[in-house]
Specification:
single chain; 341 residues; alpha+beta; 5-stranded mixed β-sheet; 9 helices; 19% strand; elongated
Length: 341
């Protein structure tokens, strides 16, 4: 399951005419098992009973119960799931904690009202009902969702219009990241808060669902030719080719047929000393499109100096160390630098 980014919004002032009357006789919502749902129909209200040793504690418990209910609905509602790639490595417990925090922060945006409260002698506690008018709350929440949906749509449109497949891949990745971090939490919350209003964002949801296929398509079209003028038996070129293949990009043997060229510039860092010959090679990797504009670049160095009395052996050791570092570090460099182009 995906993680949800915590977003704290400024509390908006919303008029409230909270009823805080305290009665000793059971109010209408407390007279039957389904009294809360009868007085506060679920289609119109989000209402939860709160209990506590005093009135303030009962009201606070009611607010907490609203947050817990919304969180549980988000967790169990399959219709609110978005077809986007979630993050790996986060435990269910951690994900649930961040989701609960997000829901709690969003709940503070709305006026929470309270029903007539009463002291339940049988339970020895105060009881009340905390409730939110769904339609009323949507007038506050809808602009927040709309702003994020429009921003995502622009990112998606920019990716669609991009002519360089390699850069287009990054554009789709950027749109997907925005959807995961900035839009998905709001869609999920909106789907519980006011389902009929959330349905107005079906177009943006469809675009989000289309992103994985678009990413795969742009990557498949981004055939890359690897050009490595300085090398030793193709060691550096093979390492970069393997790294690109590991990212899912096709590597072309035909420069003219490729949509991008990956130029691999090796600085061997050779030193000749009385103790022998030493190499500390560094490679600069630049991927350019057909226009010649750089689409991606990074630099990777061998982790340490390699040497030997025999110059040929020293050189091979240096290139081997460099190839190992390319295999180890390229993915991180690719992720870190992909947002720059």
């Amino acid at each position: 399951m995906r993680s949800i980014t915590i977003v704290l919004l400024p509390v908006l002032i919303f008029s409230s005419c909270a009823s805080t009357g305290m009665v000793t006789a059971p109010p209408a919502w407390a007279k039957t098992t389904n009294g809360v749902a009868t007085v506060y129909p679920r289609a119109q209200y989000i209402a939860q009973k709160g209990r506590g040793p005093d009135l303030a504690a009962a009201q606070n418990d009611g607010i907490a119960q609203i947050s817990r209910w919304i969180t549980s609905q988000i967790e169990t509602s399959q219709s609110s799931r978005l077809s986007i790639t979630g993050r790996n490595g986060e435990t269910d417990e951690s994900r649930q904690t961040t989701e609960e925090t997000f829901v709690s922060s969003q709940t503070t945006l709305f006026a929470v009202r309270y029903a007539d409260s009463w002291y339940n002698k049988g339970e020895g506690q105060w009881e009340t009902v905390a409730y939110i008018d769904r339609k009323e709350a949507w007038t506050i929440y809808e602009p927040q969702v709309r702003q994020r949906a429009d921003a995502f749509t622009k990112l998606f449109g920019a990716a669609e219009a991009e002519g360089e497949p390699f850069r287009q891949f990054f554009q789709y990745q950027r749109a997907q990241g925005y959807a995961e971090q900035e839009l998905d939490p709001y869609f999920r919350f909106a789907g519980i808060l006011y389902p009929q209003g959330a349905r107005d964002f079906a177009e943006a949801r469809d675009l989000i669902a289309a992103i994985p296929q678009r990413i795969d398509r742009s990557r498949a079209n981004a055939g890359i030719f690897v050009d490595c003028p300085v090398d030793l038996d193709g060691i550096a070129a093979a390492a970069v080719t393997g790294a690109l293949s590991a990212e899912g990009f096709p590597v072309s043997r035909n420069r003219l047929a490729a949509s991008a060229v990956c130029t691999v510039a090796v600085d061997e860092g050779r030193q000749t000393l009385p103790a022998g010959t030493f190499y500390t090679p560094t490679v600069s990797i630049t991927i350019s499109g057909k226009s010649g504009d750089p689409l991606f670049s990074c630099a990777i160095s061998a982790p340490e100096r390699s040497g030997a009395v025999n110059p040929d052996l020293a050189k091979r050791r240096g290139y081997t160390a460099l190839a190992g570092e390319i295999k180890k570090s390229f993915h991180g460099e690719f992720i870190a630098n992909s947002g720059n182009y």
